[in-house]
Amino acid sequence: MPDFSTLRIHQDTHHPRIARLLLNRPERLNAINDAMPREIRAAIDWAAAEDEVHVIIVEGAGKGFCGGYDLNHFGECNIDHPCQQEQFPWDPMVDYAYMKRNTEDFMSLWRSPKPTIAKVHGYAAAGGSDIALCCDLLVMADDARIGYMPTRVWGCPTTAMWTYRLGPTRAKQMMFTGDTIDGKKAAEWGLANESVPFDQLEAATLKLAQRIAGVPRSHLAMHKMVVNQVMLTMGLEQSQMMATVFDGITRHNPEGMWFRRYAQAEGFKAAVQWRDSGEPIPEGDAARRAVQEMDSRRDR
SS3 for 274? Predict the structure, then answer.
């Protein structure tokens, strides 16, 4: 079996038709670094090539599923990175190429001929929700939380899966507020297939996976292709292209630069507290003035 730095994958010891993909950076809440998207795709490719495997469970080690992008690297640091460029002018195509590749890597979960089930406990936040929603099915603990908080500032979910999984009205609510919802609400809304108490999460996910695993691989692949084709016909690829471009803009427009500078100056926890509090976020010229002031203080 392949060896990875951010995750593990193996056939379930007792159920060899089921592969278990474990996001395995528990010390960082399984946060996404540069390697994780590539390794997700490689792990899914491995499972797809294993004839005995019929279904893949995706889960997180430690306290939660995935806390999103690793903001120690992408948020507070001053390094120049393709998706948060410190140099001026910003090069949108460099940003787009990096983030679109991540999106395509996450979408390997959706493209896989073998069904994928996200087993979510703790948080599936921001980029972590992208990973969860690229899976075909979603089983959550009642007290688990899922959402994309950076829609308030400094982010746009590049997979654009919220609309296709929730419909426009509820997707707009999630995008306009940046709120998270728990497993019970996700199941009520139809985002999750099932929500159960945490101590029943493993059993519920395994029961669903075992039921699927008894179906021939060819049938699973064909049924998945039919449903996926409906989403493609609805414009999924075009939505993802727009969302990925907009994601880069949110990180480099005046409001996004204000958030980045505030995180650098005061720490990311303080920036997130402001973002999520409901207090108005500086916009336009006010954001530009705040960035200039913080840059001036930093350069003294």
Answer: helix
